[in-house]
């Protein structure tokens, strides 16, 4: 074997090694940059479901059943917002997949550009300024478990029936429901009875 052949072989091996190393480096850096950009765009986790019904100009935010659940009934937290600045609406009922109706107490009129708030968690101020608070309970059976969702329909007079997949709260802090302020300490009976303006 000539010296020239050995030299050529060593050069080819060195070039191939360099190309493999460069490819591996590019692969790792591309993978890492992809992970960073995906993480940077993630939205912070919240307890409830969110849905915007563009055609009906309605938004449902932070919809979830509050913990604890007792007696086959769960208290429903939500923010129902009317994005229409000219026309009001009214929440007529809330039903589940078995057509069972929620119990709703309070004024269900949804003003133009206004919002309705569901039940406040225990330990929160259910009569926060500027908040139209309802007391809402829904039937909860064995199909409601933390980590799963159940479909509810919000029925409005003008916007129609709006479906949303609703989770059950695993027992997070009271401030998880929008439209409330934490008062410190537990107030067992303070579930926001009445319309709570």
From TrEMBL:
**Highest taxon of the source?**
Bacteria
- Presence of keyword Signal: yes
**Among its keywords, does the record have Signal?**
yes
Show the Pfam families listed in the entry: PCuAC
UniProtKB keywords: Signal
Supply the source organism's classification: Bacteria, Bacillati, Actinomycetota, Actinomycetes, Mycobacteriales
Name this polypeptide is given = Copper chaperone PCu(A)C
Signal peptide start-end: 1-30
Q: Give the species this sequence originates from.
A: Tsukamurella spumae
């Amino acid at each position: 074997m000539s010296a020239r052949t050995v030299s050529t072989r060593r050069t080819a091996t060195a070039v191939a090694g360099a190309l493999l190393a460069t490819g591996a480096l590019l692969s790792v850096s591309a993978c890492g940059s992809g992970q960073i950009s995906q993480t940077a765009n993630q939205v912070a986790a919240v307890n409830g479901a969110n849905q915007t019904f563009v055609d009906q100009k309605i938004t449902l935010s932070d919809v979830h059943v509050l913990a604890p659940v007792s007696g086959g009934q769960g208290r429903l937290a939500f923010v129902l917002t009317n994005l229409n600045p000219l026309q009001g609406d009214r929440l007529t009922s809330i039903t589940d997949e078995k057509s069972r109706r929620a119990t709703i107490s309070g004024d269900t009129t949804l003003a133009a550009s206004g919002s309705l708030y569901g039940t406040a968690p225990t330990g929160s101020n259910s009569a926060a300024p500027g908040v139209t608070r309802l007391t809402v309970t829904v039937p909860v059976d064995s199909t409601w478990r933390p980590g799963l969702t159940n479909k509810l329909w919000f029925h409005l007079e003008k916007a129609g029936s709006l479906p949303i997949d609703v989770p059950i709260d695993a027992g997070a802090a009271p401030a998880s429901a929008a439209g409330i302020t934490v008062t410190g300490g537990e107030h067992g009976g303070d579930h926001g009875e009445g319309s709570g303006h």
